[in-house]
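Final report, Chapter 2: Outcomes

The project's central promise was a pipeline that accepts a single protein chain and returns its three-dimensional structure in a standardized token representation, suitable for archiving and comparison. That pipeline is now operational. To close this chapter, we reproduce one record exactly as it appears in the project archive, with the input sequence first and the structure output second.
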Amino acid sequence: MLSCLIVGCKDEDIRYSIERPDDTMHLQVSNEYVELNQKFGKEEAVTFSWNEVTNAPLDSKVTYYFKLDIADNDFGTSIDKMRIPAGEHSVSFTHKKMNALLTKWKIEPGERVTLEAEIIAEIEETDCYVKPELSTVRFDAVGYEIQPYDIYVMGTALEGATDPANALKMTEEISEEVYTWYGVMKEGDYKFILNTTGQSPSYTQGSDGSVVFNEHETGNETPFTINKAGFYVLKLNIEAGTLNADYPTTDYNDVWMVGEATPAGWNIMSSTKLTKDPVNQVAFYYEGLLKTGDMKFPLELKEDWNVAWLMPIENGTHEFGDNRMEHIEAGIQGHDYKWNITKEGNYRVTLNMYTMTIDFKLLQSIPDDLPCKEIWMLGDATPAGWEQGKEAFVYDFNVDKGTFYWEGELKAGSFKCPINVDGSWAITCYMPKQAGEDGKASLNMTDVQLVQPNGNDYQWKVEESEAGQYRVELNVLTNKIKFEKKN
């Protein structure tokens, strides 16, 4: 008689009104109120369980499906219907998963909401259609506001990060799931830790190369390894248990710098070439003096300046401002952005062609109490002749205070040392303190004087027999100059 109430024969000529079977599953929830906590993210927050259907016809097949939604929503925004594996009569959700669902349903953190779960029993492989049996249960839940979940990388493959206290923090790209870090690594090993006070909990390498979680340190963990030093991009997915350690390359071959802040000034054909980093395969660097003023980076050298460039995102970005840069193709009009160096000194400038960033590291700054901070060589004895602004002295931080030096070839001829170059000849110069009637002094004259425009025009004279490679040092505090011939 029971089967007559819930079963209808498959006859297209007859319509039956089939009642839904009584609930024999009695869906239950482990807690009628669930307060979610990020600290217990991977632990079970709530479990649903049910009994096996008892009113299914003999020899039929029963498949269970689970749904979950905000109560009184007719399951219109339910999670995707979950098929329950055969033989199982329960399903659980972690704190993290439940909180993600509340976020998806736009439930504010701390807000109490009533949810409704449903188990559906579909009865198949029968001669007669049996309407699915349903069982529902309600419960309340409160979510949390997601706080950063920190992960750090440490090991011998990272400079200075062999101790947890010095471990490097990764960037949390997807909360509690995907983390990234990039930088220079050397040959060695590394692993991931959750705090800087100890080496556990940690993530290390599984036997199949996957990422495994270690609650406690046992000494049997297998770290990840770096076999080739260079710049790496690490992408750790703790949810999927995967790690990608990429070794990127760059298509950039040469980079120069030009501008009033650089030794070349605005002479593009004399631009200073950066050095390709021997370890970081995507970086170029320059180490030396930068003066105050503007600068930018050409990617080739042409007299007409019609070349591609590396420029800042915003014009006039100072050396410690926005570190982003962009590639500007040759011929683009209306975009001529430059960096502006505000403090003169010795810098290490590093360009990373993968991240497209620039780093200005001030190594030492020229003292502020010097009578001048810039000096040039000017005269037909120098490689640039009488062209202003091409032969600059460099401040020497390793010798007596106030010492600038210049290195290069001195030919037969004469020269003086201006402290300002602007294209005009109203320039202030360091000159010999004494000279002959022709205004020339030998290289033995080591006393100097600073002469204002329209003053004496004394110059040092290089004889034919004296020509060669020199290091010239000029101290602006002692007013002494020294000529050291190298060959």
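Archive annotation: The helical segments are 2-6, 95-104.
This record, like all others produced under the grant, will remain available to the consortium after the project formally closes.
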